[in-house]
Design a protein that fits this description.
PI31-like, Protein Transport Mog1p, Chain A, proteasome binding, 6 strands, PI31_Prot_N, alpha+beta, 179 residues, endopeptidase inhibitor activity
């Protein structure tokens, strides 16, 4: 599996002050790889007037909660990540319909002790990549269906479903992150 531009994204995200910064950088890279661009403004956001970039905004990792805004195909998405008991809870919400996707990652499972070195930062990159794709990117992909028009597919999410960490799911993302 190719991880094109992951190393550049890692170095452009410096300084990485804690392991969680590495996970946010990985998710950011994955969103970029899927056509998202990060928005560089939080004040009075008018999506049409905000600069869209690949590089994370200045001071992106200076708060206790990671709070980033992205744009893909003209649609705004919000990414929030919160540290909860050694895990990082990621939530992506598409603004237009408030569709939400959540992923909980155990920081120590995915990030090495020498997290400031790209070579040693990530453990099991392929598996991590698959989890991020499946849980945070795929839910927002348009499904192509061979069903006749007028029918719809419903997706049911089991709240008690186990996460990639093997632990039970946490409270809903809306409760934790106040969307």
């Amino acid at each position: 599996m190719a991880f094109l531009w992951l190393e550049s994204t890692f170095h452009n995200s410096q300084p990485l002050n804690k392991k969680q910064d590495c996970l946010v950088t990985f998710v950011h890279w994955k969103l970029l790889s899927n056509g998202y661009l990060v928005l560089h403004s939080k004040q009075g956001l008018n999506v049409e007037d905000v600069e869209r970039k690949e590089v994370l905004p200045e001071n992106w990792n200076s708060e206790a909660v990671y709070d980033l805004q992205y744009l893909k195909n003209g649609e705004q998405h919000l990414l929030k990540a919160v540290i909860v008991d050694g895990e990082l809870v990621f939530t992506v919400m598409r603004v237009k319909d408030e569709k939400v996707a959540t992923l909980v990652l155990d920081t120590d499972r995915w990030v090495g002790e020498n997290f400031q070195s790209f070579i040693e930062a990530y453990k099991e990159k392929v598996t991590l990549d698959n989890f991020v794709q499946k849980e945070l990117v795929d839910p927002f992909l348009e499904k192509v269906s061979s069903k006749p028009s007028g029918t719809s597919t419903k997706f049911i999410i089991d709240e008690k479903q186990s996460t990639p960490t093997g632990a039970p799911s946490h409270p809903s993302a809306r409760q934790i992150l106040n969307f």
